[in-house]
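Hi W., the alpha-D-ribofuranose complex you wanted:
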Amino acid sequence: MARIPQPNIAILGSLNIDLIARVDHLPARGETVSASGVEKRFGGKGANQALAAARQGAQVTLIGCLGDDPDGRDYRNHLRREGVNCSSLNTVRGGTGTAFISVDALGENQIVVVLGANAALTEPAVKMQRARIAVAKLLLLQLEIPLESAVDAIRIANEARVPVILNASPIRADFPWGEVTIDVLILNEPETIAVFGSADPEEWKERLSGKRVHHLITTRGGRSTLVISKTSIHEVPAHPVTPVDTVGAGDTFAGVFVAHYAEGTAIEEAVRWANTAAAMSTLKPGGQEGVPRRGDVQSTLTIAANAA
Ligand code: RIB
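Structure:
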């Protein structure tokens, strides 16, 4: 049977080469710790989310910048093999973005990012992508790129009435909340507390309108995910696992969520897929290696439903 064509999702964001060191514990300020070796993997929040959405069968166009180094060339080939449309990926002079990541024995991490080519995703570069954003079913973006460029892309989407899904990570204190419209805001719990200035979900709900956010999704690690709109707070259970590596779990969540939401799936159901996929992604090292395909998430959801 012919597959129904999937809606096109525009994803704007970063691409990094991740250099990952495994350590017993994460270094405290001023502390030096030893690692057994270093692994080199594809990463960056934008590309991780694009790959996660593509593995759910979504048609994804990634807007971003790679360096003109061998890493940039390899990365483009890798994303093409994953079925991501790379026609809006610019190659710029200099090095591809790099992330230095430490992962401890419990799978927790610390990350330092060198923007590299991602810094070339400037406002003019985003304006060149106006038509691409305007025809998309949804725009998904994060904040690991210049802030003005992210805000500009949101304005373009707002003007074109393209719903915006913002994963506001890493959190930026200078984001102009209330000046642009966001359909779905995805944050983890510490980020939500920072943005809303409160640890109380009832207050998050009351403050949504002032920030021009329609829905807030707050992930809480191993605990249920909260889905909050102006009139309701729903909990979607987490999928229990013992993680090996949580790098990129939030990116898998955002990419898988957006793939299902773009198909017209109800927000809580799309979060159920995203929760399960994000948990599954932590069972393998690296930001992309553990990202599950649609059929594997479906099987896991079915097994969980039968066991309930
Ligand atoms: O969210 C995980 C990602 O953050 C890593 O792949 C790393 O590149 C950093 O951008």
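The domain at 8-13+45-91+117-293 is CATH 3.40.1190.20 (UDP-N-acetylmuramoyl-L-alanine:D-glutamate ligase).

W.
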